[in-house]
Amino acid sequence: MNLLNVVEYVIYYGQALLIKGDRLIDSNDLELINKKYYRTFIKYIFFSISFYIVALFVVTYILETKNIDLFNKKTNNQVERSIAHVIKAYDIRLSNIAETSVLNIKNKIASKDHDFLIKNFDNYFKELKHEMPTLESMQFIDVNGSSIARLHETNAYSDNLLEKRDSIKNITQNHLKIIGYENGVYKNVFRFMYPIFENGYYIGALEFGFSPFFLLDEISDITGYCSMFYMDKGRTLEVDSNSKNRLSKDKIEKIKSIAINYDMNSLSTISFEDKEYLVSPVKIRDFNKKTVGYVFVLIDTSKLTNNKTTLLQLVGGMSTIMFVLLILFVSKIFKKMQYKIVQVRQNQVEDLEEYKNKLELSNNYLDTVFNFSPSMIYTTNGEALGKINNKLLEFLNYDSVEELVCEHECICEFFENRDGFVAKEVDGTTWLEYILKHKDLKNRVLMKNRKTLKEHVFDIKIEKLNFDKNQRHIVALNDITELEFQKNRFEEAIDGTQDGLWDWNLSTDEVYYSTRWKSMLGYEPYELANKLSTWKKLVHPVDYEEASQDLEKNINKQSDYYENIHRLKHKDGSWVWILDRGKTVFDVDGHPLRMVGFITDITEKKLLEEKLIKKDEMMIAQSQNAAMGEMISMIAHQWRQPIAIISMSVNNMLVDIELDEIEVNSFKEHSETILTQTQHLSQTIDDFRNFFKPEKVKSLVTVQSVIDNLVHI
């Protein structure tokens, strides 16, 4: 409980004391406040003392736990560094032995000479065991992972260890040094394995094996901890030499019992020799960095206890000082707040009264607006009725909302089920869900006036109310009965002209399409949405650009009216030729508001025009054929004389040759005559060809030129 909580509590509690209806506080009330104030103060003192006592023990416990955790981590780090130091020292010694001892006998290892290796290394192994008492095994391994010679067990050799031990498989494949614990066939051993090479080729390995607790004595000497013991993952326990010599069998068994049942996720303690020891586990890993066991360290907790006492005294002293200072400070705060509470409460009473009046005025205002609206309005969650205005009650012939709600759960129960109108259920969904999904459509409902029994058409609009977590909607029903009647009359008049009406709202892109407009294309009134996109989907792609340009011209005042012929797609997939006409309506400032127009089906007219065009083309072809006959006759007549002249000139030339009376001038004259007549014939052919060209161009000629050509012929 901090100071802010105290002040808030005092204000809240004081407010509760000062409420006496809506009247102001007098002297009797102030006397009552003083009595309540001191009672509250005493309660606060009691709760504060209790709180600080509990907090003192909690903080002390947390700090003590953290202190133990820190001490445990420090111990683990020290032990792990010691282990690394011992392993490194052993590695330096053994790697030197491995290099020097096999220097001159690599051929014996490669040839797997068991007897030679046993004979030469037996004494050497015994000397090493004397130097290193925890050394248990030494053996040579061949290139295939089989034992060549076991110096600790001379009669066992030639067995393949490749599938039995992961370390053998690893060094055989990778030819790298291996150091670490490994669970062997019979027990857990700490191994040093060194690959042997000859001329760069791997020929085998030399292995040294130590008992699991070889590290314990070394680490105990380095760290100075009173006792250490090792346990593998199979719960097999080994105790260091110091502990074996110093502890009795019963105490060692007690240590074993604790270690076997030890929870690795929590700290435990054991007591013997009138002392309490913290058991700290340190993970031991194999050559693959996997945990294979733990080294347990027994730590004297007397140092931790001294730290705990000092810590408790420090926390207790500081808490007591802070508590006394806080009591004095809060006492002054209470006295200053005593009269301020009265003022705050009086102001709150006045504010509450003011808010109450404003809220009442606001509710009256909303009720007036709600009931004054010409539309019929009510709220609903889709299942039950909420607030209902008087206009709707009057239409349904009910005197009160309670009476209506008692008999009906939803206004949709009054909807008439007719085509083209929203009913209680539409396409498997409720009326509310349908309208919310199809807000872009013009949704209408049909209801009967319960007084006059006359049917009325309503345009229905729905909006979601997001004032609280409750899902509610406000529904507005606008009576458009007269408008629908006028619209139907107008559409009947329009339908009489067989034209389709369209009315485009340029600001919203909503387009009203009359029933006749839709029926021209084979659609029912409800099948096409009243949007500009409907026309865009139906217009022929070839005609769309030109039609859009003509619309834009009229909207931009570049034309007096809009007119375009294009094709619209019928429901059956065929194309209907449409004559589309319209005009833009502008506001007083010249801005376009809407565009209104009609479409006329001119498909039959277009088909008739196509028939007439084909008929005209046929008549033109027939007249050209007749003219061709006359032209051929004229060509035959015109060709006779030039051909006769050519024939005569050739004949004269042949006679001159026969009589050997050839003259150059005469021969030249006859040749020019032939060329002239030939050119005339070619020109006639070109004239004939041009006559039948569809793209021929008319040109002006003079009568004199025609006469000259005839005379020349």
Helix and strand arrangement:
Layout: H1 3-18, H2 27-101, H3 106-110, H4 114-131, E1 135-142, E2 147-150, H5 166-174, E3 178-183, E4 188-198, E5 201-210, H6 214-223, E6 227-232, E7 237-239, H7 241-246, H8 249-260, E8 268-272, E9 275-285, E10 291-300, H9 302-372, E11 376-380, E12 385-388, H10 390-395, H11 401-407, E13 425-426, E14 429-430, H12 431-437, E15 444-448, E16 455-465, E17 472-479, H13 481-496, E18 500-505, E19 510-513, H14 515-519, H15 532-538, H16 541-555, E20 562-569, E21 575-586, E22 592-601, H17 603-658, H18 664-691, H19 703-712
Antiparallel strand pairs: 1-2, 1-5, 3-4, 4-5, 6-7, 6-10, 8-9, 9-10, 11-12, 11-17, 13-14, 15-16, 16-17, 18-19, 18-22, 20-21, 21-22
Helix pairs in contact: 1-2, 1-9, 2-6, 2-9, 17-18
